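Tokens as discussed.
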């Protein structure tokens, strides 16, 4: 018997309904995965609300998971029944079993559990491409990271520290700021009680940041632009507080000939080579201990709505998972 969360219409957490589903045999090039853990990500909220609409109903949200291969389709030669694999970016994750294209999963290396893999693939590969590809962070970089105690945030702060950067981290409340600091942030700002632009100016002595990573969106715009040096980079990679409204690109000129990008992980892991390069880099930093994956919440699959309430209610830190 297989189960999944389904969405029949866009809306609040209540539209996440638990249903029995039929999962067929894998087709050519596919595997069937019995999932042992499923990652919960902010993108799941955008899928649920329709901010990132899906083409038809019902659909199963969730873009990340891990588990055991229980069947392989024709032509699949590099995976076998019993292998433990993980994936990120393939919608349909909130399910006990599912089919996946074999070339979009990666084997989980020894020393990493399914739960850790499910918690880190999407957030960790995002941190990786943002820090290593979108902007090449190194010891000369001063960066600002918003929502640093969240899933992507806690991984990114640890990784940026390993790269030697000066990290200014924002988070909502003292407890979250303490977490970001212990993950390796050089400076922390409680953006609920402090004006983050003023604090960044103060911390950098007016020199500002080379790059600002902003997954908060509406609430931190355009303030984030005021934290960037002339010719620096604004990376708008998410919209936890809502999307940034349309603006005149002239603002980028006025604030110092800034660059802006709105990246998405899909383009950075589009080929099998880039997927493996990104995942392997992530596995390496986790196995070395440089990046610790903090799984702070585990919910039964049928309780996905509660996981969404907690995530949207800003109650979570680090990564959270569902267990089928
Ligand atoms: P988080 O665990 O970071 O949760 C979101 C956090 O955003 C909250 O904990 C909260 O932290 C902060 N936040 C600020 N304002 C709000 C608000 N109004 N409502 C809710 N939360 C708010 O989520 P993820 O790690 O899953 O994702 C982080 C961001 O990265 C998201 O925007 C997501 O869409 C984006 N993302 C982008 C990808 C890409 O390739 N472009 C891929 C993966 C994620 P606090 O209380 O500290 O403010």
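Sequence:
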């Amino acid at each position: 018997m297989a189960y999944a969360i389904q969405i029949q219409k866009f809306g609040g957490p209540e539209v996440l309904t638990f249903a029995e589903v039929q999962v067929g045999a894998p087709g050519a090039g596919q595997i069937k995965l019995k999932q042992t853990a499923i990652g919960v990500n902010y993108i799941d909220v955008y899928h649920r609300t329709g901010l990132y609409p899906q083409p038809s109903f019902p659909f199963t949200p969730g873009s990340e998971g891990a588990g055991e291969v229980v069947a392989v389709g024709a032509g699949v030669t590099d995976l076998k029944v019993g292998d433990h694999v993980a994936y990120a970016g393939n919608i349909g994750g909130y399910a006990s079993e599912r089919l996946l294209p074999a070339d979009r999963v990666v084997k989980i290396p020894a020393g990493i559990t399914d739960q850790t893999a499910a918690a880190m693939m999407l957030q960790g590969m995002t941190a990786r491409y943002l820090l290593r590809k979108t902007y090449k962070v190194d010891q000369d970089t001063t960066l600002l990271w918003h929502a640093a105690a969240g899933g992507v945030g806690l991984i990114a702060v640890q990784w940026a520290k390993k790269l030697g950067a000066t990290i200014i981290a924002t988070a909502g409340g003292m407890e979250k700021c303490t977490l970001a600091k212990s993950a390796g942030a050089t400076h922390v700002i409680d953006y609920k009680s402090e004006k983050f632009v003023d604090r960044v100016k103060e911390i950098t002595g007016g020199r500002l940041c080379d790059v600002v990573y902003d997954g908060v969106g509406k609430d931190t715009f355009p303030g984030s632009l005021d934290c960037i040096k002339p010719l620096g980079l604004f990376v708008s990679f998410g919209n936890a507080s809502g999307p940034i409204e349309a603006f005149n690109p002239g603002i980028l000129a006025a604030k110092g000939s800034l660059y802006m990008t709105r990246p998405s992980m899909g383009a950075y892991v589009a080929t099998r080579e880039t997927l493996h390069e990104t995942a392997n880099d992530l596995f390496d930093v986790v196995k070395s201990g440089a990046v610790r994956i903090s799984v702070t919440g585990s919910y039964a699959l049928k309780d996905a709505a509660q996981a969404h309430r907690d995530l949207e209610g800003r109650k979570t830190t680090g990564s959270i998972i569902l267990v089928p």
